[in-house]
Q: What sequence folds into this?
């Protein structure tokens, strides 16, 4: 579940869930059973021969979507696309640590709506205006789409400036673009307050991409969109050799059932609130903590050497990272400067686990 053991039997508390992938817990019995039973029946078929597990999973997944998001799809476009400076998706990223020196096509980046480090702080209108000006002065006035994480992951566990997506989506749609929400890390109830990250911003996108926690570690991903956009599929052949794999589909369906049965969204809200409270108390004690942010079990702790200047504590972060591992705690690192602890554990993480994490951080920081 939320614990891992090395070859000597030492226990580690997993506070990163295999990079936000193990949503229900390592080796969750319900998911293991679903995968094993399906493997006994049929391990692989392509979408040439549809299997009921594919349909059952697709129906269960789309039932979780609001609005008119009902179909899995691929939507073609030939115009400019807009993303953020610090978005994670490899083909669209503005992060230099992930970007290769090759042509990226018509991808344009706008400012990151980061309340802590962003140019405009929490002023969503200012960030949205920058999107509008970029379209006006940096394009033909028409764009294909706008893709953004609804709650940044690798970029440093950043919750967007409140109200930003609603303003940005309106601007993009007026320019003819579709709005794409990346829910790879923030979906499936992890934020606690909502099932999907985009709901925290009060919007409904045109396309939603999802992966990681969708399969609890299985190699699974999905795209959900509207019937209108999905109709474009009729113009071309859409095929993937491993698409709709019955084993992964059975596992994905089991994940959805576990999240509902164990009320993981509510659990994330409860444990997350306790953990944030404890982390903020830790922030008052240790000057190295510049910011504590997030909601549910999608949290970030940014470390700095100077709170006023927000100077990234790069070396200290690495040192603490290793000390925590020695203490039996595994956390993630992120942010442009690698100075943010990403706390996104399996969603079975308990309040006792949260206390152990914070106590371990306190002990490690006291020894700096």
A:
């Amino acid at each position: 579940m939320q614990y891992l053991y090395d070859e000597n039997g030492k226990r580690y508390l997993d506070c990163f869930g295999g990079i936000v992938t193990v949503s229900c817990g390592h080796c969750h019995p319900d998911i293991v059973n679903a995968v094993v039973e399906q493997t006994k029946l049929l391990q692989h078929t392509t979408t040439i021969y549809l299997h009921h597990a594919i349909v059952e999973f697709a129906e269960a997944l789309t039932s979780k979507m609001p609005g008119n998001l009902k179909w899995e799809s691929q939507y073609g476009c030939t115009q400019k696309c807009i993303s953020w400076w610090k978005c994670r998706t490899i083909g669209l990223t503005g992060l230099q640590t992930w970007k290769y020196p090759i042509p990226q096509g018509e991808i344009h980046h706008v400012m990151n709506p980061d309340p802590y480090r962003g140019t405009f702080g929490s002023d969503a209108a200012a960030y949205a205006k920058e999107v509008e000006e970029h379209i006006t002065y940096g394009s033909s006035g028409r764009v294909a789409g706008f893709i953004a994480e609804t709650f940044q992951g690798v970029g440093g566990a950043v919750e967007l400036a409140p109200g930003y997506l609603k303003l940005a989506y309106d601007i993009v749609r007026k320019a003819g673009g579709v709005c794409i929400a990346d829910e790879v890390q923030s979906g499936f109830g992890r934020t606690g307050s909502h099932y999907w990250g985009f709901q925290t911003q009060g919007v409904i996108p045109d396309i939603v991409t999802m992966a990681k926690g969708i399969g609890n570690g299985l190699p699974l991903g999905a795209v959900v969109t509207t019937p209108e956009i999905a109709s474009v599929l009729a113009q071309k052949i859409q095929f993937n050799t491993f698409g709709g794999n019955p084993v992964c589909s059975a596992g994905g369906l089991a994940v959805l059932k576990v999240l509902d049965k164990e009320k993981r969204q509510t659990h994330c809200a409860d444990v997350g609130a306790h953990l944030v409270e404890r982390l903020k108390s830790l922030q008052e004690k240790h000057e190295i903590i510049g910011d504590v942010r997030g909601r549910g079990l999608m949290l970030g702790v940014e470390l700095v050497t100077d709170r006023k200047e927000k100077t990234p504590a790069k070396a200290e972060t690495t040192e603490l990272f290793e000390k925590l591992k020695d203490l039996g705690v595994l956390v993630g690192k992120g942010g442009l400067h690698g100075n943010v602890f990403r706390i996104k554990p399996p969603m079975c993480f308990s309040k006792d686990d949260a206390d152990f994490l914070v106590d371990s951080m306190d002990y490690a920081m006291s020894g700096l």
